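User: My instructor asked us to take a sequence, write out its structure as tokens, and then describe one feature of it. I'm not sure where to start. Here is the sequence I was given:
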Amino acid sequence: MTPPPHTALSVNLNKVALVRNTRHLGIPSVTRAATLCLQAGAGGITVHPRPDARHIRAGDVGELHALLAAWPGAEFNIEGNPFHNLMDFVREFRPQQCTFVPDAEGQFTSDHGWDLTRDAARLAPVIAQARALGVRVSLFMDPLPDAMAQARAVGADRVELYTEGYARVHGTERQAGVLRQFAAAAQAARRAGLGVNAGHDLNRDNLTAFLGAVPEVQEVSIGHALISDALELGYAATVRAYLACIAEASGVRGAP
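Assistant: Let's start with the prediction itself. The structure tokens for your sequence are:
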């Protein structure tokens, strides 16, 4: 199967909302951040509205949905646990994509993918509900090649490969071996008929090498590092820097 020609950048705005929530002034603005990122060339916006609303709030989701209606080429990705509050947002706003993540309610951050041997039976109905609404479903998955056919069988359209394991070993002697594992998982996903996304702890230092070794990736969702960079560089310059990393990857395909 021919790899997709371009990897889209979806900017996760959770950390903008986290700073905003420390005061009652409405700044920094989540919608303003989204606008600046889209103007700079981001392909989409991601939010993860957790049940405790510690960063993205329900009102933010509605405002971003309205904003993105004016950006027909950009995608809205809402991620979260479909057995908590996610499906309410999916039913109301029908984003282009929802990413199902197996987080506990109070979990600090996502740290593992779905175990489809255990979770497939309960995931299948909510995946079917989302797809019936016209929403693409991506499952947050560890880079396990053998699990990709299971993800397709349960009804998913894409998988999002959980990349913290790669980020931890970037720049070490273990990097090449871990990248081979991700490449194998991505190839297995494509063979199964799935699209491939990736995210978690990707940054300006490690993104190019990852995409060079895993060219099947259609979208990267990046939040913490990108918003941290934006504190120093500004949103527009930061988005352009990440897009440059994506473009550079086309020249290093297959490099360790």
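For the description part of your assignment, you could build on this observation: The chain is about 45% helix and 15% strand. Try explaining in your own words what that tells you about the chain.
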